[in-house]
DNA sequence: ACACCACAGGTCCTCAGACAACCTGAGAGG
DNA sequence: CCTCTCAGGTTGTCTGAGGACCTGTGGTGT
């Protein structure tokens, strides 16, 4: 089944559409192992690199996944639905509660696994947050979220980092409103009470319990404000 | 800026992530023409084919578009990338680790908040799981996941429930493989060791600590098997 | 009979080089 | 001023080669 001899569009496009059709039309169900690159190249009448690029495009779209030494497998038959929209629709307190769960456990892992690079990133994010305390509300919240994202990233689990990134926009919205309401009060604390610096320090010395405790206290105080603000 | 000399993941993946970051973080706004393939190859320290495949993956994800003879252009900065697809692509051990975090904290909440309806649903799910222990692997895994979903639902946080539902398909795949490997061994336990019944009982009497402990032991044993299965 | 181990084959991964097809902008010519 | 030509740069495509990785197979020892 050679693809068009004359080329109305790049061969990669044609190959991609051809393979995508096989998948979406159920010819290759989820879990199927696709034919090898050489086989596909022969079947489609194109070069191996063209086949590889077509497969890579489908991988980018989330339809297939290549496993080195094993093969290319179908992992979905259609592009999937949209989780962020559900988050925006949910109650901010529910979102925040899940954030507390994810982040407190993440810092426990971070205390055990953080690398030198992680610590450097944390220091930078901490300093940026302190600088942003002088700026406007949105910038401060962004810097705050960036610091918390760096904490989660230090756990060394990409799924966890992605999960937190998913929550970030929803958090941002709610937190900006909160900061506006509370003003500068929550931004500056007396020396020794700056929880974020203490949190990073706990992660640095690998004290999971302390990190968990500090973060939980901080987040639950904010959660209380969120509850209060609604009631 | 050469990419990692040692390869924890395929170079194409690293290159894709690197380029995606440049786009999503606003370094290259919509409409930007990316550096040429050769330039990117030099910058990233990889071959041109590798760069091409990375760009093709981003094109498949809808972030860039290549125009022959002209260049590659950014057409979107939002990773239209859906979360479930990322889960399927991630390492099963990373996914499972996050699942442990979510579920153990969820049962803590469940122990505090479960309603009568929640308990009835848990009993039903528990019984269904025991019945399914006789059936085939897929059915058993489905019943097992349904029980765990009921536990999470008892926490009374819809965001948490949605989150677990998002993980279910990815878990299902990995767990079926595991059950096939271990056979019936893990299904039946001596009376008094059936962790799921004990878990539901702990939730019923509102003992968050016990529920957390039982579940954590159960899940981490499975996680160890997953780690072992790969090594 | 079972468990463990080395090996071979197949598969994806990466690179280098070459040429074709195509677009764009600069300069020559009208 | 407009049009045309053309050179340079860019993406598109193919080929060949070798490396890394997974998996099933067969042998070996217990």
TrEMBL record, chains A, B:
The keyword Plastid does not apply. PROSITE patterns: HTH_GNTR (PS50949). This is FadR family transcriptional regulator. One of its GO terms (molecular function) is DNA-binding transcription factor activity. It comes from the Bacteria. Keywords: DNA-binding, Transcription, Transcription regulation. Residues 9-77 form the HTH gntR-type domain. It comes from Nonomuraea deserti. The keyword Ribosomal protein does not apply. Pfam families: FCD, GntR.
């Amino acid at each position: 089944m050679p693809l068009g001899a004359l080329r109305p569009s790049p061969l990669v496009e044609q190959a991609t559409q051809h393979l995508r059709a096989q998948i979406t039309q159920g010819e290759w169900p989820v879990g199927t192992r696709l034919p090898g690159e050489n086989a596909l190249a022969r079947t489609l009448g194109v070069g191996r690199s063209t086949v590889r690029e077509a497969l890579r495009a489908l991988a980018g779209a989330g339809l297939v996944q290549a496993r080195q030494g094993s093969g290319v497998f179908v992992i979905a038959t259609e592009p999937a639905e949209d989780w962020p929209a559900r988050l925006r629709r949910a109650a901010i307190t529910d979102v925040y509660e899940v954030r507390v769960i994810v982040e407190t456990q993440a810092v426990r892992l971070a205390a055990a696994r953080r690398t030198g690079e992680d610590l450097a990133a944390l220091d930078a994010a901490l300093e940026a947050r302190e600088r942003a305390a002088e700026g406007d509300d949105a910038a401060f919240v962004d810097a705050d979220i960036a610091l918390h994202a760096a904490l989660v990233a230090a756990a060394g689990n990409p799924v966890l980092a992605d999960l937190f990134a998913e929550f970030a926009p929803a958090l941002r919205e709610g937190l900006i409103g909160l900061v506006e309401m509370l003003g500068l009060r929550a931004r500056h604390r007396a020396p020794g009470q700056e929880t974020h610096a203490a949190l990073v320090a706990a992660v640095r010395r690998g004290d999971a319990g302390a990190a968990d405790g500090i973060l939980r206290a901080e987040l639950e105080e904010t959660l209380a404000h969120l509850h209060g603000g609604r009631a």
